[in-house]
Structures are given as C-alpha cells and as structure tokens.
Amino acid sequence: MQVTFEETKTLKEKPSDNELGFGKYFTDYMFVMDYTDEKGWYNFKITPFAPIALNPATMVLHYAQETFEGLKAYRTREGKILLFRPEMNARRMIKSNERLCMATIPEDLFVDAIKTLVNHEKEWVPHLEGTSLYIRPFMFATEVAVGVHPASSYKFVVILSPVGNYYPEGVNPVKIYVEDEYVRATKGGTGFTKCGGNYAASIIAQEKARKLGYTQVLWLDGVERKYVEEVGTMNAMFIVDNEVYTAPIDGTVLPGITRDSCLTLLKAWGYKVHEEHFSIDFLMKAAREGRVQEAFGTGTAAVISPIGELFYKGDKQIINDFKTGAITQKLYDTLTGIQYGKVEDSFGWTQEV
Ligand SMILES: *Cc1c(COP(=O)(O)O)cnc(C)c1O
Fold first, then answer.
1. pLDDT-wise least confident of 76-90, 156-170, 178-192
2. Could you say which of 110, 130, 163 is where a domain stops?
3. Span 27-32, mean pLDDT?
4. Which domain holds residue 303?
C-alpha cells in the first residue's frame, strides 16, 4: 500500500499503563482514506490525529450513514504485536456497509490499513497485563447534499486508543437490567450491523438501567419482547444444566467475533451449544431454580464479562452467588491467553503486525 505520511509537530505524552481507562486517550496519528464512485478508494494517508472539518450539509450529519468496527492489538511478552481475527472485522464491515448502501472496503485493504497504522504507532501498545491498543476503524458518507439517497463519497478513518479494562469493575460480575420497554433491533432492520444509529437508539435504555444501578441492559426481541437477544455491546451466553444458550445470528443480533470464538472453544471442549431463540421466561425460571450456573457477555472491549445479576420486571436473580464461574474464567483465560501469545493459537486466530 502506498501511504502518504504527514508528520505531527508535537508528540503526545503517553499516559501510564495503570490509568488508561477505556477510550480516553488517542495516539499521535490516524489512518485516513477517501472514496468516490469515480476513483474508488484513494488518498491513503497517515496523518496527525486531528479534527476533521465537514461541510454542514455533509450527508452523514443528516442521515447517519456511518459504520464502525472495534478490535485490539496486544503486546506479547516477547514484544510482538498481535491482532485477533482482523479479517472477521473486515468482512463484518462489508456486511454493515452493504446494508446501509455504503461503499465497501476490500478485506485486504481494511487489514493493511490497520496493520500499517498499528505498526507506525507500536510504541503506544501498552505493556501492563490486561491492557491493549483499541483500534476503531470507521467510515461515513461525505457527499454534500440534503436529500436521502446513497452517497457517492466516503471517508474511512482508523484511530487508536490505549486501553485498560472496559468496566471499572474489571473481570468481575456485572448487574444486568432486562429491558422490557425499549427495543434495539427487529428483523429486516440494522441489528446485525455496527452502525452508529443502532447505538444512538440504545442510549435511552442504557441510561434507564444506569439510574437503577445496573451496568448494562439485556435486550429482548423487538416484536414480542420475549426472546433473549444480547447485551448493549456484547453477545450474551448462559450455561443452563451444563449446556450453552445464546441467541442465533439471524438478523437482529450483532455477529460478535468474541461470540464466534467462544462458541468454537466451548464446542471443542465438548459443550452442547444451543444457538437458538430462548425466552426470558425460560431463563428467569431456570435462574429461580438455580439451574443457570453461569452467565456472561462476550465482546472485544471487555472480552468476557460475567453476569452476576439479572433483573426482569421486578424479579431479581443472582447468578452463581455473584461470582465468576469456572467456564467463564476458562474462556477468559484461554481467549486472552491466545490474544497475548501465552496460549497456543491452535485455531490460527492471531496475526502479527
Ligand atoms: C461489537 C458488538 C458486539 C461484540 O462483537 P465483537 O466482535 O465480539 O467485539 C456484540 N453486540 C453488539 C451490539 C456490538 O456492538
């Protein structure tokens, strides 16, 4: 890839590894490229991390043609920098963009852009255990026009943020509010895409849950509010009677890469996996009867997040005494082990930058 490099005037002071938090600090540079229907993708650049000026009539500001991805770069003990299944993010962004009638980015170009930027910003990949460099690729319509139609021009940007734990609680159980009023996605909609609009629409439920003392919401299906779908930015899995339950990927749930990786591991370990619709009533009843042994969310940001409490219509159920379960812990250790190069990568999931 031919990339133009623009040097920054001043390099930032790097934060210390134990005060990173999540998404608060950004590195010195970003990757940018542009698209027009005539030229395709062009103008590949690594430029200083800086504001982007937009014409007030830019389409994304009015019609929300925006999609994004999220992945991480991990530093191994030997000092290698690893990415985890970046081609899956590339393919998912293609699907998101197709749904929103946005231009798509070829898989190789997407992965190359990320590797080029991360390689340039290597020094920013933190060293402390549990830390990583969060990679946020995103793309939006730049055509200047008022009027709803597919845009003819786009900008793709990659920014990087050194991060610690997603939840201030760390790898400890979180309290989940089962949302029975608002919905996130319906069949035929955009639930399977990572588009900004999905999250804009979800914040109200997140706020409601937060005010009631809950960390995240568990969404139910958008039609009957009956079937369990996923958590705010994580897929959700439940171990009931030693078998794994998670919602299927059929249009409303985000096809998480962590979800796919967990299911692959769980199947390899001999667990029976139900990727099928199951109702919140089934789940709460099983919880009341003490049959929900473990519950957890899966996503790049938090990796595995144990669920310690479910609250649904006044019924509060504590899962596994609000402790991290053995399967949850094993998944976390195995996945992070592979990501940090400490556990053999028998599925070929990591790529060196
Ligand atoms: C990003 C995301 C996930 C998790 O996907 P990963 O690829 O595992 O990070 C799950 N649900 C939603 C709604 C998401 O936005």
1. 156-170
2. 163
3. 98
4. 174-340
Q: Sign of the C-alpha dihedral, residues 221, 226, 228, 230?
A: positive
Q: How confident is the model at residue 165 (pLDDT cuts 50, 70, 90)?
A: confident
Could you tell me if 197 and 322 lie in one domain? yes
Report pLDDT for 167.
Answer: 59
Whether residue 209 sits in one domain with residue 257: yes
- The token duo for 339 is 């990501």
Identify which of 16, 23, 15, 140 has the alpha carbon closest to the alpha carbon of residue 72.
23
Is the same domain home to 251 and 279? yes
Which residue owns the Cα nearest ligand 1 atom 15? 233
Nearest to 29 by CA among 55, 65, 5: 5
- At 169 the pLDDT is 52
Its pTM surpasses 0.85:
yes
The string over 174-191, giving b where at least 16 C-beta atoms fall within 10 Å of a residue's C-beta and e elsewhere, is bbbbbbeebbbbeeebbb
Q: Which residues line ligand 1 (CB under 6 A)?
A: 70, 194, 230, 233-235, 254, 256-259, 298-300
- Going by CA atoms, what residue is nearest to atom 3 of ligand 1? 234
Domain assignment present for 273:
yes
How many alpha carbons fall within 13 Å on the CB side of residue 148? 4
Looking at the fold, whether 128 and 50 belong to one and the same domain comes out as yes
Identify whether residues 246 and 157 lie together within a single domain. no
Q: Which atom of ligand 1 is nearest to the CA of 261?
A: 8
| Mean pLDDT to the nearest integer, 40-68 | 98
Q: Which atom of ligand 1 is nearest to the CA of 198?
A: 13
Q: How far is the CA of 51 from the centre of ligand 1 (A)?
A: 27
Coil, helix or strand for 352? Answer: strand
For a mutational test of ligand 1's pocket, the pick from 184, 235, 304, i.e. the residue with the most ligand atoms closer than 8 A to its C-beta, is: 235
Residue 172 has pLDDT above 90, yes or no: no
Same domain, 292 and 147: no
269-294: average pLDDT: 98
Using CA positions, which residue lies closest to atom 2 of ligand 1? 233
pLDDT of residue 217: 97
Q: How many domains does the chain contain in total?
A: 2
